[in-house]
Amino acid sequence: MIEVGGTEYPMYRTMMGLHLHEEGAPEDLNTEIKKVCYSAYCLVKGACARESIEFPFTFDEFFIKADPELMEKFVTISPVPAEETEEKKPKAGRSH
To answer: pLDDT digits over 19-59, tens only?
Structure first.
């Protein structure tokens, strides 16, 4: 859960959130904080849609109202991609 504008909303990965992130990004994501905040916005918007919870914010409203602790919560929810955390394993059928 994450608090935005005094109300708590769910925040987790959904297909809708991933789609929003890929397809709907505003053109003015010119700073790292805006990029991270947009990623969090997509997670929250997708989770709210899945749970049939009204999410009344545009990205700009979310960016203005989001608590600075958003960054910390977002980092703990967003796992590092598997290819960055797993050791390289030999493929089946290959010998060393």
So the answer is: 887 776 777 777 777 888 888 889 999 999 999 999 999 99
Q: 3-state DSSP call for residue 42?
A: helix
Amino acid present at 34: K
Structural domain boundaries in the chain = 2-24+34-78
As a whole number of angstroms, the distance between CA 34 and CA 8 comes to: 21
Q: For residue 64, how many C-alpha atoms fall within 13 Å in the half-sphere facing its CB?
A: 5
pLDDT for residue 56: 94
Instruction: Enumerate the β-bridge partners of residue 4.
Output: 7, 66
In 3D space, the residue among 71, 36, 37, 41 whose CA is nearest the CA of residue 55 turns out to be: 41
3-state SS string for 45-86: HHHHHHCCCCCCCCHHHHHHHECCCHHHHHHHHCCCCHHHHC
